[in-house]
Amino acid sequence: MIQIAVTGKPNVGKSSFFNAATLSEAEVASYPFTTIDANHAVAYASCSCPCQELGVQCNPKNSRCIDGTRLIPVELIDVAGLVPGAHEGRGLGNKFLDDLRQARAFLHVIDASGSTDEEGRPVEPGSHDPLEDVQFLEDEITMWLYGILEKNWDRLLRKASSEKLDMNSIIHEQLSGTGITPEDIIEASRKVDADVYSWGKDELLEFLEELLRIAKPMLIVANKADIPEARKNIERLMDSYPHVVPASAEAELALRRASEAGLINYTPGEGDFEIIDGAGLTDRQMSALEYIRENVLEVYGSTGVQEAINRAVFDLLDMIVVFPVEDEHHFTDQRGNVLPDALLVPRGSGPRDLAYLIHTEIGDSFMHAVDARRGMRVAADHELEDGDIISIICGR
């Protein structure tokens, strides 16, 4: 399962976002370092399920389907808040950074209203610039990796030179356990306009900044978007960074809990909700729901929580959804379950890649595949498309 870290400084709404996305019960409080041990829970990336298009009733096994929307599980990690100097051990910095090791992408939750300072302490809305928080988190993670490499850098260079070893492989060995691949390192090193043996601190930091962008891309969740001071800051964030989602984690959590309580009809990610007849809402509940509708949904189109997860999976990580089946005529597995699985695969993958993702033995015995929609045979190097329904044909 893909792991995505919910990151940021203390007291910006990380745990509220985590709870809203997963309906978990991570502790929430208006003081720094509420989260000490990382919380793990399942959230869902959403996409269209082919069931309605094909006119069939699906039987999902590894995912869920709600009114034609397929919900595919991903793991969210809610980690301790980060403060300046974390890479040197300030706050809970070392624990925070260790918790990020296996995350494929970061959802960086910031207080877009500027009502928490650089340490996460409450201040007057608008008195802190949230753009400063974006850069500081990137810098802290870069310096964490720099600390891993720098202490042995000269010795590693001498070893690579004398033993004629590949420096990229050595770097990968040093960063083992961070989830960074050899391919990530090769791509990042090509962006540095200098031979690796001449790298000083500036070049090494440049390399690590590129490496993070490639290996652990980041999306900015501009939280507390309903507070008036947030709107101009969100515009500035969008002008400065490519992946920004305005959000109100508290609004999403309120809507999801109201939906679970049978008070409203609401699907995560949608731009409105419906009050159920006879729900018996109090005046206070009605006022809270209208506030969410007027200050979040009508302004931004959604609460931003589901959009942030979807964009992390489909934009940052460039994944697509493929539906593997065994019977291409009835879209079923061997037990007759219709469209049983929805798998996240990297864009550019082929049917053989899909076969190995399902099981090593299936990949080893792969012969060809069938595009179930078109009833056409496709080869191992055929590039899969988002929403494909594929049957894998294996040799005996």
Whole-number mean pLDDT: 88
CATH superfamily assignment of the domain at 320-394? Beta-grasp domain
- The CA-CA distance between the termini, in Å, is 30 Å
Question: Which H/E pattern describes the elements?
Answer: EHEHEEHEHHHHHEHEHEEHHEEHHEEE
Roughly what fraction of the amino acids lie in strands?
Answer: 15-25%
Helical residue percent? 25-40%
Supply Rg. Answer: 23 Å
- Would you identify the CATH architecture of the domain at 320-394? Roll
Shape: flat
Kindly state the number of beta strands: 14
Q: What kind of assembly state do the chains in view correspond to?
A: single chain
Q: Any idea of the CATH class of the domain at 320-394?
A: Alpha Beta
The chain-level structural class is alpha/beta
- What fold name stands as the CATH topology of the domain at 320-394? Ubiquitin-like (UB roll)
Total count of helical runs of at least 4 residues: 14
Characterize the biggest β-sheet.
7 strands, mixed
What ranges have pLDDT less than 50 throughout 5 or more consecutive residues?
Answer: 26-37
Provide a descriptive summary of the structure in words.
The chain is of the alpha/beta class and 396 residues long. It has a domain at 320-394: Beta-grasp domain (Ubiquitin-like (UB roll), Roll), CATH 3.10.20.30. The protein contains 14 helices and 14 strands. The protein has helices spanning 14-22, 51-54, 93-99, 130-150, 153-163, 167-174, 182-190, 201-215, 230-240, 249-260, 283-300, 305-316, 351-358, 360-364; strands at residues 3-7, 39-48, 64-66, 69-78, 105-111, 218-223, 244-246, 264-265, 274-275, 319-325, 343-346, 366-371, 376-378, 389-394. The strands form three sheets. Strands 1, 2, 3, 4, 5, 6 and 7 form a seven-stranded mixed sheet that branches. Strand 3 and strand 4 (69-78) form a beta hairpin. Helix 7 (182-190) crosses helix 8. The longest helix has 21 residues, at 130-150. The protein is flat, with a radius of gyration of 23 Å. Residues 26-37 have low confidence and may be disordered.
